[in-house]
Amino acid sequence: MEEEGTVQSSGNTDATGRAGIHAVGLAVTNGLGWIFREQPTSDYGIDAHIEARDQQSEPSGRLIALQIKSGASYFEEKTKSGYVYRGDLKHLDYWKRHSLPVLVVLTDLKHGSTYWQVVSDEFIKRTSKHWKIEIPFAQHLNKAARKSLREIAEGSPAQRRVDELVLAKPWMDMLARGERLFLEAEEWINKSSGRGSLRLVGQDKDGKDTIVQDWPFVMFPGMLYVEVLPALFPWADMSIDEEFYEDHDEAQFDLECGVWDGEDGRYIFHTEDFHDWRSKFASIRPYECDGEVANFRLELELNKIGRAFLDIEDYLIGGKTSTPNLEGSFGSGYLLGLKAAARRLGFKPKDLDLGDI
């Protein structure tokens, strides 16, 4: 075991290092079923990249960087729950600034085991000059780690939220253009699985509906759709499609509050005012429910998150910022100062269009 604050040997022997990289490559491709790419020239302690595959087994574009260690010395120091890896602060600072999440991977060539831990402040302990991290015995680089590693590849919760907003931008753009956007949902209310379906329907300025996204099978176990649906679209305020719901509400109102005249074949009066009756309902609710399936049609409108994101996107893509209104006077003192500066620089004030004082 090494003394506190010292750093483990910085380099594997060539043969051991090559064997370690090969072993991790096999663990990634055969165990995880993901893509392994060795970095031919070590990128300041980055030996390889791995890329997650999506549910269709296609490359996802989500990468993780690996620092691979396989020498026997890396398995000498341990706690009750894992091996202790020690490193230089210069490497730690670089890895924390890296655009990709970084894993420290220890591969035990003798026993054919590979262990990992993500380089994160949550797990790092700094010493006076160095740092250390525990690599848990339970974290093997195999199929069981796929879910945890996929979450790491997707980045921090903040980054995942940004990614979700980027994916939703085409729908935000529709609303910004003055089109309307509706969410139609079908909830199987007698199933604890939360099974159902969703689809987004766009409506142009002529009132024509077009399906812009369809999710024919979704599951939200143990959750109510009236709670789930608003959370799926944090960039929009959600409410019922008033015009669509009104027809259904009128029919239900007649059934609940109408007094039917069998001779005349019509409702002769209602026991409650329609608008008072309708005001009792929640802002998000199904328009019909037969005890098995609840159907929703909800309208989405840009909220402050959606509007702010579009403004940020405009700036990131085109450098667009708000333009100040420069009409009117700047004040005599400001103009006098500008004219004095112009004279010192050899310009004639009349050439600068500074106006009259």
Shape: flat
The CATH architecture of the largest domain can be named as 3-Layer(aba) Sandwich
Outline the low-pLDDT stretches: 1-5
Query: Measured on Cα atoms, how large is the radius of gyration?
Result: 32 Å
Number of helices: 9
The averaged pLDDT comes out at 85
Topology as a string of helices (H) and strands (E)? HEEEEHEEEEHHEEEHEHEEHEEHH
Portion in helices: 25-40%
**Beta strand %:** 25-35%
CATH class of the largest domain: Alpha Beta
Q: Structurally, how many domains make up the residues?
A: 2
Q: Give me the count of strands.
A: 16
Q: Biggest sheet: strands, sense, closure? A: 6 strands, antiparallel
What's the N-to-C terminus distance?
Answer: 81 Å
Backbone structural class: alpha+beta
CATH-defined fold name of the largest domain: Trna Endonuclease, Chain: A, domain 1
Description:
The chain has helices spanning 14-32, 89-97, 146-153, 157-176, 225-232, 242-257, 274-278, 304-318, 332-344; strands at 35-38, 48-53, 59-69, 82-88, 102-108, 113-118, 124-126, 130-136, 180-188, 195-203, 209-219, 236-240, 258-261, 266-270, 288-289, 293-302. With 357 residues, the chain is an alpha+beta fold. The strands form 4 sheets. Strands 9, 10, 11, 12, 15 and 16 form a 6-stranded antiparallel sheet that branches. Helix 4 crosses helix 8. The N and C termini lie far apart (81 Å).
